[in-house]
Structure formats: C-alpha cells, structure tokens
Design goal:
With about 160 residues, the protein is mainly α. About 55% of the residues lie in helices and about 10% in strands. It has one domain: Glycosyltransferase, CATH 1.50.10.20.
C-alpha cells in the first residue's frame, strides 16, 4: 500500500538541495516561485501552532503525526536551522520582509534556547545558553546572536 504521508525532508529538501541553486544559475523565476511556494507551505502547514517550531511528520492531510510523546524529541534543530537559512536566502533574493521576519523569529528561538535540550543531547539551559551546532564529531560551533548566525550562512555559501 502506497503511503501519502509527508515529511520535512520530502517537502523541503528540494529547496535547500537544488531549487535555489537552479534559480541562481538560470535566473528562471519558476525555480524561485516553486521555492517560495514550498517555504510558504512550511509556514502554513509544518509549523507547530503552540511553539512555532517546524515539525517533521504529517499525514496526507497535513495532520501532525507524533513519533514520541515528548515534543522536545520531535523537534529537529538542524531542520529548523535549515529553514532559517532558506528563509534568509529567499529574503536576499526577493526582498520580501516576511522571509526576514521568519528568519529572525526561528533563529531567535534557536539562539535563545527555547528547548531544554537539542536532538544531539547538548544542554540548552533556560538561561539562554548559546546554540551549539554540531560541525563534525565532537566539534561544535557556538551561535550567540543573529549576526553570528548570518555570518555562518555566508561562510557556508563559499
């Protein structure tokens, strides 16, 4: 039996993997418009209404499908960071302030430690400990403010 469930990866990866790059290479608006359509779906359908975190799994009608009883275990910090990067890139490409607002809102949650711990088991206290992003093995990058996060995105682009 074929599954029509939706997930973060199946919906969003085309934007981060190739849609924005195709637009930059060809300047064909169809790629940019498709990226915008997908990311607007993220805001409307994949965002938890109570916490505003981007969630992972949904049924064919966009009803959230919890994998555990604990929402903290359901939130993928890496995917939320990926969404921040994509919204920021869309803002740079379109000038749409709504994308910048989404960037700042989600990034603010990440930087301010709105979770007790991340999926990687790194403690993020309620005292606004900087966000720790795993780079490789046991190496982590500390993100203490929006400016640092934006600088990381520019380094990733090079």
């Amino acid at each position: 039996m074929k599954s029509y469930d939706k997930s973060f990866s199946s919906e969003v990866v085309p934007v981060s993997s190739y849609m924005l790059y195709l637009y930059l290479a060809t300047r064909d608006d169809k790629y940019l418009h498709q990226a915008e359509r997908i990311m607007n779906t993220v805001l409307k359908k994949m965002t938890d209404p109570e916490t505003n975190w981007i969630l992972e799994s949904f049924d064919k009608d966009w009803n959230y499908k919890a994998r555990t009883d604990n929402l903290e275990n359901e939130i993928n910090i890496g995917h939320n960071l990926e969404v921040v990067w994509m919204f920021y890139r869309l803002y740079l490409l379109t000038g749409n302030k709504g994308y910048l607002d989404s960037t700042e809102f989600i990034a603010g949650k990440l930087i301010n430690g709105d979770l007790v711990k991340t999926e990687y088991g790194i403690p993020v206290s309620e005292e606004q400990t900087p966000l720790c992003i795993p780079i490789s093995g046991t190496n982590f990058l500390l993100i203490e403010n929006m400016e640092t996060l934006i600088q990381v995105f520019f380094r990733m682009e090079k």
